[in-house]
Write a structure and sequence with these properties.
Elements lengths: L2 H12 L12 H6 L16 E12 L8 E7 L2 E7 L1 H6 L1 H6 L2 E11 L2 E11 L35 H5 L3 H5 L4 E3 L1
Parallel strand pairs: 1-6, 3-5
Antiparallel strand pairs: 1-2, 1-4, 2-3, 4-5
């Protein structure tokens, strides 16, 4: 198995890996998109527009926050706190709720030692994680690529067991914890 496959198996069994972080395997693509690593946020000037990406760990929309959604993402270098106002949450609802690997563009905000990114745009980069394992020949993984409102599978399914099966990627990268 390759290192990325080891990491996937570790995440499948323990939700973490001591070998590497899944985002480290896609860092080259993120660098091409000019995505900042979370560790670099401490050196970036307040008010700067930037992009950050990471695995979604927590999404929280407290009733007392007036519709604001707080998200914590993690890359191989650390954590980022994201603030999504209600109007943007409505606009990017699908990306925010479905992404396992989320990239956001926003403005850095520093409050003392606490750093937030006020989100302006969201992108679901989860498909980048599918390249970490060898499943090119497994057609059941294509089921996850269908539109969420699609009633039929994107190709004929031989049996119901194949239709219900989740891909290893869905199992291995845990979904975020959602709090209200």
């Amino acid at each position: 198995m390759s290192t990325s496959e080891h990491v996937i198996q570790d995440y499948a069994s323990t939700s973490l890996s001591l070998k590497a972080h899944p985002v480290s395997f896609v860092r080259e693509q993120l660098n091409l998109l000019r995505v900042s690593a979370n560790k670099d946020l401490a050196e970036i000037k307040d008010g700067t527009t930037l992009k950050v990406a990471g695995l979604v760990l927590v999404r929280q929309r407290p009733g007392t926050a007036g519709g604001v959604c707080f998200i914590i993402i993690e890359d191989e270098s650390g954590f980022s706190n994201l603030v999504v106002f209600e109007s943007l949450f409505i606009k990017y609802r699908k990306e925010i709720l479905q992404a396992r690997l989320l990239m956001v563009e926003g403005k850095l905000q520093r409050e003392g030692e606490v750093i937030h990114v006020i989100v302006k745009r969201c992108f679901d980069l989860t498909p980048l994680l599918r390249k970490l394992s060898k499943e090119e020949n497994d057609h059941s993984s294509l089921l996850t690529l269908s539109r969420s409102d699609e009633k039929t599978a994107p190709f004929p399914v031989e049996n119901k067991r194949t239709q219900v099966r989740k891909t290893d990627q869905e199992i291995s990268i845990p979904q975020a914890r959602n709090f209200r």
